[in-house]
Structures are given as structure tokens and as C-alpha cells.
Amino acid sequence: MKYPVVVHHSENTAFGVTVPDLPGCFSAGDTFDQALENTSEAIELHLGGLVDEGMNIPKPGSIDQHIGKKEYADGTWGFIEFDIVPYLGKGEKINVTLPSSLIRKIDAKYKNRSKFLAEAALKALA
Fold it and tell me: Considering the entire predicted model, what is its pTM?
């Protein structure tokens, strides 16, 4: 999933990153790139905390939903791609029947069938 993020920077300060769809999830870094890299770790810790507390993982919205808000004024927008599948609960084995040509296409493009099917299901259910 892609979570929108907004990066703020003032002269003589680090870059600060906010993840609007994950209230309370913030990060920072001395450079723009470092701030974005640190944001992936912040999202990981934030989602782990939500799961530990038995809360649902918020779905990412769009930048358009947040761009006009005062607290994000003068920020630079971007996305952090993050795999939420490991946070959805314990895996369960199922038996799925698919046409062989479809299986070959999945295998040619993706290394992990289960991850592909989980991500496809999340998109379809969103």
C-alpha cells in the first residue's frame, strides 16, 4: 500500500515527515532522503503498535484528501510504499484453483504467490 506523506523543512532544521493517515506517526532525518527512509521504520513501529493493541490498520487515503489542510501547508508531498500484509494476522493455508496460464503470469512477475494474492484481495476489497 502507498501511504501519503508530507515533508516539512525550515532553514537550519531537520526534515520532518508526517503520515496523515496514521495519526501520531512521525519521522525526521537530516536529509530529505534520510527522512523518507526513517518514515518506513516509523510506519512499521506504528502499525506494530496498532496490531498489539488490537486496533485495525487504517487504509491509506489520497494526497487530495489532505493537501488543503492547514497543518500540511508548505509541505512537500510523496508516498511511502509499505507492505501491510504481515500486520493482518497469522497466515492460514488455503487451496486455490487458478488457470495454469494465470499462475505462469503471476510467477513470472512476482516471487511470492501468497503475497500477490493477499495484495490483490486487499485492492479488490478496498
Answer: 0.73
